[in-house]
Amino acid sequence: MDLHLKGKVIIVTGGSKGIGYGICEQLIKEDAIPVIVGRNKETISQAVEVLKTSGGKVGYAYAELSDPDACKNAVEQIKNEYGLIDGLVNNAGINDGVSLETGDFEAFTQSIHRNLTHYYMMAHLCLPALKKSKGAIVNIGSKTSITGQGGTSGYAAANGGRNALTREWAVELLPYSVRVNAVIVAESYTPLYQKWIQTFPDPVQKLHEIESRIPLENRMTTPKEIGSTVCFLLSDQSSHTTGQLLFVDGGYTHLDRSL
Hints:
Blueprint: E1 9-13, H1 18-29, E2 33-38, H2 41-52, E3 59-62, H3 68-82, E4 87-90, H4 105-133, E5 136-142, H5 144-147, H6 153-172, E6 179-185, H7 191-197, H8 203-212, H9 223-234, E7 245-247
């Protein structure tokens, strides 16, 4: 299926690692131009170089996403360089373990800023360009907004906010034909996930336990599989799809995990 993404400029926050990187890989396969936005200059530089070896075009802009001025400068840089923005993928975030029992107001508020506020800021800043291109927004979310996880109030609340904003923006942007959808992820083995799994006494056994509870094929969802769905939602092949939460999770969220 031709997704007609050739030459489309797509901003991907946190696109240098993990799920974001997988999204960029799939965008390049569709001849789109992913533009990575994030703060880590080293990983962004490495990602850009590797992605370019596949023959694709890829751009970048540095920004601490919790800083509104940095977000504004990054979006302005991208508009000046490319002249337009066809899509935004809000992806960056971290499961930072701010719990109800051991957390506090400051840590909780910081978690919301790390994981939700920049979704709004980036969409707000990109909107004038997206209205011109009749582009699309895809928000990456987490199963924690539906299932809970325990010990991660900030991250779960932020992801609930991501779901709500997806529906809210889909309604608000109907007059401009700007579509807004979300891809909800459960278990995907990213560098951050690997770091988390290593905190357990027996990481191998813990990983096996988690994978055994994923209904479809007892394996984790790959970043590329998530990226493929994101590409579809950005494309005009999903031209009448908006306000949807698509669960790319091997059935983890909605199927009985005792199967």
